[in-house]
Design goal:
Elements: E1 2-7, E2 12-18, E3 27-32, E4 41-46, E5 52-58, E6 66-67, E7 76-77, E8 90-96, E9 102-110, E10 128-135, E11 140-143, E12 167-168, H1 174-204, H2 211-241, H3 249-273, H4 284-316, H5 323-342, H6 347-363
Antiparallel strand pairs: 1-2, 1-11, 2-8, 3-4, 3-9, 4-5, 5-6, 7-8, 9-10, 10-12
Helix pairs in contact: 1-2, 1-4, 3-4, 4-5
Length: about 375
């Protein structure tokens, strides 16, 4: 969709919302604010009988907005600027002007028509959405998301004139800053620190007697606080934005990863501190610990992927994360896989050392210079 704003001499501002024709028009909307929660919105759609509906709504969070009986600025349809027969249909309305010289707007487009012409009709979720800031000092301003990227944080003129003087880039909101901090810190904790601890265990356990110290310090003492801070910032961003908790796969997987991480640390402590000195084979919990660790890292990589590929543009309306992030994610995933599975070449040596240590615990350490032949089944 394209948005145009015209400051009229009669102290009103007229907004023209136009479909680009790429998708069929269901409904168009703008809101006078920077986020969905508690922002007055004007939603318009055409009806099958040729009429149009203007509905003024508001939402307390990222849910379907409901009709507001007394909006702060009452919108009026502008029939002279409404055109439904074109391949790029447009709808227009005007509102009383205020003292703002710049106007922060959220916008949304849906290709699914509402279920009726009623102002309180049920709306299906938008197909695209974003944020923009229009400079009303210029008396007329316009914005075309198609010329500025999918989110519409900056842009050019509606109708393809190419002018961008009326639009400026909207700074990050407070909740979006929390999201950025959450992403950076949680990513570092889950897909840098945790794999580092796993690689220490994989590569050093056959060459360095202090490998376990390095393993638990990285996995728990360092990664624990980092992961906790990252998740806390994620929760804080949801609270600040007014969005619901646990309403999408990214948020639910985040809670699941925290639970799995706590379970993994607990299992590692159990393995280390509670041992059967008479055991003759590697306990099953040791294998479970390794499998669970790899599962957490794999899920964390997927969590980061959906975080920057889906969660960020969907819940902030901002431009997608640069393509370089996708490239970095792919490279890092390959590096981790090669580094860990390459270390499996040491498994034979690891199991041999474990058999010798276990045999010596049961039968006593032989005198210096004396070598034992250990049965294979030991």
């Amino acid at each position: 969709m394209c948005i145009s704003a015209i400051v009229n001499s009669n102290s009103t501002v007229t907004y023209v919302l136009q479909s680009t024709g790429v998708s069929s028009l269901g409904w168009l909307a703008i809101g006078f604010g920077s986020q969905m929660a508690n922002t007055p919105m004007v939603i318009m759609w055409p009806n099958s009988d040729g009429s149009t509906t203007l509905s003024q709504r508001q939402a307390s969070a990222e849910v379907m907005p409901t009709v507001v009986a007394s909006p702060p600025r009452v919108a009026t349809k502008v029939a002279s600027l409404t055109a439904l027969s074109s391949t790029m249909p447009q709808l227009a309305f005007s509102v009383p002007a205020n003292s703002d010289s710049t106007q922060n707007l959220i916008w949304a487009f849906s290709s699914t028509p509402p279920d009726s012409s009623s102002v309180s009709a049920v709306l299906q979720k938008h197909l695209l959405s974003g944020v923009v800031q229009l400079n009303l000092k210029a008396n007329s301003a316009s914005f075309n998301p198609a010329q500025s990227g999918p989110s519409g944080t900056s842009g050019g003129a509606a109708g393809g004139s190419g002018s961008s003087s009326g639009t400026v880039k909207l700074p990050l909101l407070l909740y979006q800053k929390y999201v950025v901090a959450h992403a950076a810190i949680a990513t570092f904790g889950f897909i840098v620190l945790l794999p580092t601890g796993a690689l220490i265990a994989r590569w050093l356990r056959t060459t360095n007697i202090n490998w376990f110290m390095g393993h638990w310090v990285v996995q728990l003492a360092i990664a624990g606080p980092v992961i906790g801070l990252g998740l806390a910032l994620g929760v804080l961003s949801v609270i600040e934005s007014g969005a619901p908790h646990l309403n999408d796969p990214h948020k639910k997987l985040g809670v699941a990863l925290l639970a799995l991480y706590v379970a993994q640390c607990s299992l590692g402590a159990f393995i280390h501190f509670i041992k059967n000195p008479e055991r003759k084979r590697r306990p099953a919990q040791n294998y479970a610990h390794a499998i669970l660790g790899l599962t957490i890292i794999a899920l964390a990589l997927y969590q980061v992927w959906i975080g920057f590929r889906t969660e960020w543009p969907l819940n902030t309306g901002r431009d997608p994360v640069p393509h370089a992030a996708t490239t970095a994610w792919i490279v890092w995933t390959v590096v981790l896989a090669v580094a860990y599975f390459g270390g499996l070449i040491l498994l034979k040596k690891q199991f041999e050392r474990e058999r010798i240590a276990q045999f010596n615990r049961i039968h006593g350490t032989p005198p210096m210079g004396v070598y034992r032949t250990i049965p294979v089944d030991q």
